[in-house]
Amino acid sequence: QVQLVESGGGLVQAGGSLRLSCAASGSISTSSAMGWYRQAPGNQRELVARIATGGTTNYADAVKGRFTISRDNAKNMVYLQMNSLKPEDTAVYYCKLGWSRSVYDVWGQGTQVTVSS
């Protein structure tokens, strides 16, 4: 099965920026899409952004206009550029293969993003 490793999280002030990276084993070009999800303490894991192989993107309303998802299939990487960060963006961020959720989803260890006010 594919293995995913997220990185790039950290502590930033509100209004700051971070760029998250997800490295995938094997080729992600064969998958239909890649997605970023996040989970705050006590909350369910929720979709943040996703990108199809052809480049179509989809964002949660809470991050639209502030976050940008991109991918580099040659490098087996997917990225999440996060600008104008807000304290409510604080969560552990995970990447996932595929456009939709599945019982067979594989998650990485996640990367912590903390936004202070």
Summary keywords:
117 residues; mainly beta; six-stranded mixed β-sheet; four-stranded antiparallel β-sheet; globular
Question: Helices, strands, pairings?
Answer:
Blueprint: E1 4-7, E2 10-13, E3 18-24, E4 33-39, E5 46-52, E6 57-59, E7 67-72, E8 77-82, E9 91-97, E10 111-116
Parallel strand pairs: 2-10
Antiparallel strand pairs: 1-3, 3-8, 4-5, 4-9, 5-6, 7-8, 9-10
**Distance between termini?**
40 Å
What series of H and E elements makes up the topology? EEEEEEEEEE
**What overall form do the CA principal axes indicate?**
globular
Give me the number of helical elements. Answer: 0
Q: Let me know the number of strands.
A: 10
Rg, Å, rounded: 13 Å
Oligomeric state of shown chains: single chain
Approximately what portion of the residues adopt beta-strand conformation?
over 45%
Strand order of the largest sheet: 2-10-9-4-5-6
Which regions have little confidence, pLDDT < 50, spanning 5+ residues? none
Mean pLDDT: 93
The residue fraction in helices comes out at: under 10%
